[in-house]
Amino acid sequence: MAPPMIDPALFDQLKAKIDEDTNVRKELDQILDDLNTHVSYTQGVLSRIHSTPRSKYATLLGQVEDGIKKETETIGKLSGFASQYPYYKYNHRWTRMVQDAISTVILCAWLGGLSTESNPGELGRLLTLEQIGEALNVPVNLKDRDAFHVTIEEYLLGLISVVDELSRLAVNAVTLGDAAMAVRISGFIRDLHAGFQVLNLKNDVLRKRVDSVKYAVKKVEDVVYDLSLRNLIPQEAQGQ
Amino acid sequence: MSGTKRDWNGNAKRRDGPRGPQKPVIKNAYTPMFEALRDELDAHHDRRERIVKASRDITALSKKIIFSLQRVRKIERELPNNIQAEVDSRLADIAKLLAGLAPEIQGINRYRYSRSLMCLEELVEALTFAHYLRTQTLLGPDELASLVEGLVKQGAAPEDAVMANAGDTAGGDAAEPPQPPPADAPTVTLTIDDYLYGVFDLTGEMMRFATTSTALTGTLASSGSDESAMGDGDEAPRTILHDMHELGTFFEMLPVSPGNRFQWEKKLDVTRQSVRKVERLGYDRIVRGSERPKGWVPDLNAEDPAPGEEE
Fold first, then answer.
1. For the domain bounded by B28-121+139-188, which CATH number is listed?
2. Any B CB within 8 A of A115 CB
3. CA–CA distance, A68 with A42 (Å, rounded to integer)
4. Per-residue pLDDT tens for A14-28?
5. Labelling B163: which of A73, B2, B59, B281 has CA 20 to 30 A away?
6. Which residues of A touch B190 (CB under 8 A)?
């Protein structure tokens, strides 16, 4: 008797693998739902900077830090779960949310929040990828083992969101009478723009997003131009 | 951004923070960080480029193997010599490419570049098709994995060992190289999706094989078609039509792989059509088999070419 076309055990073997994949995705979705909630909340709180004068940042940043704490907890849960499976198999399902979480952390720290002993909070502080990893309590840019981490691309994309947000803040700060903030932001994102020019970008999502940085630079330079034309830049900000 | 920027007093402005402007690259406090990130990203892009290149070559070679196999006319233990030779030489080329590819796609990088590794589906298709033509059975993922592992080892081995070994691998058993490379040598692992989508494409190849072989031999292909099995009363040999039915049912019963539902549905639909075409072949043979002259090709709906025919 010739062997059958398909080994009878094969069906169960494949079905089990597909079912496992499906279940992983279901469980992942639950964690990501939570993460989405916390990230949206934190972003919402952060959007208040556009209507908050600089003297009241401290209170606001306290609330943001609470949101970031929740984000960090959920990312910790995600990290524990996702590290059981190949990282890049499911990475696309959370990468947007992680980017958004990173941008809340970067922005909060830039505004003077997330103060640590070695790295006290002050305006204009840019967290590096490694510092993001410390803030979110996950590894970064892993190459030697297959586990959850924050990638370079996620960091850069999160940073670009911050640039966009700051270009909006420049306008609103001026409205609130804080012209020095606009000058400060202008210098910062011009430096970042120069930094992005250093990268060799392929025709991918990163390139598309990096293209938006130059518009942010221009927007803020226009604000600073308007101010300087009218002699509205305070003395202490002129050095920048 | 040319010309000199001036501040509101009309004094020339330093453009880039504390260190001032420099001509070729604008340097500032963040430049070193971006330079470090650039080097990492470059390494990633270069690696992907190498993978894409190897992948394209493996795909082309796999397709050529399939074309060679489509010149086979019946299912039997040994492939015709000339075809076996063609398959062997292409497999030897693939083995070298795979050996070069293996170190690039270890650990975390396996899934990172899986979208650039479509060649593995094509290779699965070629290997399972060759296996079917010899044994009339479906090669399972575990046997396939050891087959591919054998290829990688063979590709990594020195040139003379490759020559001695090429035949074995194609013969269906995992090759045992004479002096095996270190046990932890990198290999190429297949994902479950590589296997499933490769087998989906296999059904298309089986349909084409069934069509030509039926047209030229006048019987539906089966491993018993030219031997004593015919004599045993009701125990007619299993034909390719039966195998197609079994594969079709197999995929209908499997849950949809959640990775890419859209692609799964599409492939499943193509498989359904291939099964129909072979059903039609079987029907034609029964109803007018005796009337039909040798070499007559049934008028199958040509609107929907089998997948993999584009090249």
1. 1.20.58.190
2. no
3. 7
4. 999 999 999 999 999
5. B59
6. none
